[in-house]
């Protein structure tokens, strides 16, 4: 009689087989969507073969080393991985790093951060079919898989188990919404969770939710994003941009998502005749760079013709300009450096919020909307520490921003609380390295 464990394993295999079949059936549409996206972002039409499991030969320098593989899906995860990759390179000089992504912008960020390192190789991660992942693993032969934040792929983890590649999920976060979604696919998620050697969660709440998916060996290590050091070059750039803006008050709307920019622009139009906002310069930096042009067109159509950051010369920003569009990549620390108050997007609408930590690292007071389920515990801790303030909607956000901009002492105190909050939460990289060390020593 088949054991319960054997029955569950067989059921998981059959469901994963169905999952793979869905991937194959969807593949023509997936590739077509990729190609169409490449019409706006040409980098999405580059290295396409990597996404289906075909790779160029290794260089002689890297072929002689064993890869520690770090998967960072996009821009945010790649920035978060920076201190961890730096620590891995420093601690294990005999190894090379394989850094994989799913988005072209993530890959571009990785190139900007590590392009000069001869021990870092970048690639796209193939789509999650058993055959493609198998080709990937046979080509690179990684000795360890480190997944950043939320990247749990059933076939990838199953294949890593077959090829005896330990899997660690680090800087992990799991919202209540994601937990509910995971429970709907409990067989796939439970098998994937069981295939991980260890998990380093950002918070106690994240750890508790991850355990509910069936994952043991979960440790709370904190967020490595707190260990990211603002590059001095970007801080200097922020200072130079600030000098071009003269003495105007600056509100940064950072990492905004689709639908939020229109809310902000409409609110600014409604207040355009209010003398309290006469010297306010609003800077909008969208989360996704493919939307930069769209936001410029939207603002122009609403009677707020903006200045684009990429067209900002060394002369002063004209007083008539009320809106600056941050249409550059990898300059977020510069934008935080130049602003007086930062609103973090993805939170006015139910999208879960975006990373607050970079603003704290530069010591800026933060406003955050009502929807922050992706960063719920850190957000609540920051609010309790006086580093961030919750707003209910776009009107409340502009009111709160104006209040802080008109009250220097209160704004400076909140900025200091933000800087202190960031300092108190550092150390996650060292804790994560301690978690990974037993997996690397045996390689």
Summarize the structure.
The protein is α/β, with parallel strands linked by helices and 443 residues long.
Protein described:
By secondary structure, the chain is α/β, with parallel strands linked by helices. The chain folds into 2 domains: 4-222 and 427-441, 3-Deoxy-D-manno-octulosonic-acid transferase, N-terminal domain (Rossmann fold), CATH 3.40.50.11720; 232-424, Glycogen Phosphorylase B (Rossmann fold), CATH 3.40.50. The protein is built from 18 helices and 14 strands. The chain has helices at residues 4-37, 60-63, 75-91, 104-114, 130-140, 154-162, 176-184, 186-194, 204-212, 232-244, 260-270, 292-301, 332-338, 357-361, 376-384, 394-406, 408-424, 428-441; strands spanning 66-71, 95-101, 120-124, 144-148, 167-172, 198-201, 218-220, 249-256, 280-286, 307-308, 323-325, 341-344, 366-368, 388-390. The strands form 2 sheets. It has a 7-stranded parallel beta sheet, with helices on both faces. It has a 7-stranded parallel beta sheet with strand order 10-11-9-8-12-13-14, sandwiched between helices. α6 (154-162) packs parallel to α8 and α10 packs across α13. It is globular.
């Amino acid at each position: 009689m088949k054991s319960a464990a054997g029955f569950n394993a067989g059921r998981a295999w059959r469901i994963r087989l169905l999952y793979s079949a869905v991937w194959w059936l969807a593949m023509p549409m997936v590739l077509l969507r990729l190609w169409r996206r490449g019409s706006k972002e040409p980098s999405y039409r580059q290295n396409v073969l990597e996404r289906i499991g075909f790779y160029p030969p290794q260089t002689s320098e890297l072929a002689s080393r064993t890869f520690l593989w770090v998967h960072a899906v996009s821009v945010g995860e790649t920035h978060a991985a920076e201190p961890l990759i730096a620590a891995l390179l420093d601690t294990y000089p005999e190894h090379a790093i394989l850094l994989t992504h799913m988005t072209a912008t993530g890959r571009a960020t990785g190139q900007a951060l590590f392009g000069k390192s001869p021990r870092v190789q970048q690639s796209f991660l193939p789509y999650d079919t058993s055959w493609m992942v198998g080709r990937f693993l046979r080509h690179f032969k990684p000795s360890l898989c480190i997944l950043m934040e939320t990247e749990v792929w059933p076939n990838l983890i199953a294949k890593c188990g077959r090829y005896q590649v330990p899997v660690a999920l680090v800087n992990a976060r799991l919202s209540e919404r994601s937990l509910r979604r995971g429970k709907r696919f409990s067989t796939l998620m439970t098998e994937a969770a069981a295939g991980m050697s260890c998990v380093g969660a950002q918070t106690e709440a994240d750890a508790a939710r991850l355990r509910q998916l069936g994952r043991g060996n979960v440790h709370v290590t904190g967020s490595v994003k707190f260990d990211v050091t603002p590059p001095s070059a970007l801080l200097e750039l922020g200072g130079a941009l600030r000098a071009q803006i003269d003495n105007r008050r600056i509100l940064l709307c950072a990492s905004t998502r689709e639908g939020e920019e229109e809310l902000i622009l409409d609110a600014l139009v409604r207040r355009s005749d209010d003398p309290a906002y006469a010297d306010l310069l609003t800077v909008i930096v969208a989360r996704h760079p493919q939307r930069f042009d769209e936001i410029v067109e939207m603002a122009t159509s609403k009677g707020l013709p903006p200045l684009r950051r990429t067209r900002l010369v060394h002369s002063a920003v004209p007083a008539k300009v009320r809106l600056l569009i941050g249409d550059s990549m990898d300059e977020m620390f510069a934008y935080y450096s130049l602003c007086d108050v930062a609103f973090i997007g993805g939170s006015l609408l139910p999208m879960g919020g975006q990373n607050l930590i970079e603003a704290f690292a530069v010591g800026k007071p933060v406003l955050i909307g009502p929807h922050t389920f992706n960063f719920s515990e850190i957000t609540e801790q920051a609010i309790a520490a006086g580093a961030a303030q919750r707003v209910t909607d776009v009107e409340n956000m502009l009111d709160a921003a104006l209040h802080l901009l008109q009250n220097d002492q209160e704004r400076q105190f909140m900025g200091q609380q933000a800087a202190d909050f960031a300092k108190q939460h550092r150390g996650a990289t060292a804790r994560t390295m301690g978690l990974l060390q037993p997996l690397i020593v045996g390689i």
